[in-house]
Design a protein that fits this description.
This protein is an all-beta fold. About 0% of the residues lie in helices and about 50% in strands. The strands form two sheets. Strands 2, 4, 5, 6, 9, 10 and 11 form a seven-stranded mixed sheet that branches. It has a four-stranded antiparallel sheet with strand order 1-3-8-7, with no helix packed on it.
């Protein structure tokens, strides 16, 4: 019962910054944990970051800690991924996902997915 639409992807030079947005529909958004995943060509989908429904619990994969920040605005039904100091290895299609459990710490809990937005980091 959630529909997710990502935006904000594009081409950015290494060391630059980019902010991804994910707009959600559905009355239950406020109680859903939200996460970001990414998939590069020829690679498995990778967990990037997540935020619990209350915003009180954050999760990041080690490769983005200190560089990426996930946040949410429940009034706007939107989750963001602020990407700073980007690297060429960050190049991937980034997907927004929703976890109805509200926790977000288990990749298997994400039930709803967006279509993805391409992020390309040039060296």
């Amino acid at each position: 019962q959630a529909q997710l639409v990502e935006s904000g992807g594009g081409l950015v030079q290494a060391g630059g910054s980019l902010r991804l947005s994910c707009a959600a529909s559905g009355r239950t958004f406020i109680s859903y944990a939200m996460g970001w995943f990414r998939q590069a060509p020829g690679k498995e989908r990778e967990f990037v970051a997540a935020i619990s429904w209350s915003g009180g619990r954050l999760y990041y994969t080690d490769s983005v800690k200190g560089r990426f920040t996930i946040s949410r605005d429940n009034a706007k039904k939107t989750v963001y991924l602020q990407m700073n100091s980007v690297k060429p290895e960050d190049t991937a299609v980034y997907y927004c996902a929703a976890d109805p459990s509200g926790w977000g710490g288990n990749a298997q809990g994400y039930r709803y997915w967006g279509q993805g937005t391409q992020v390309t980091v040039s060296s």
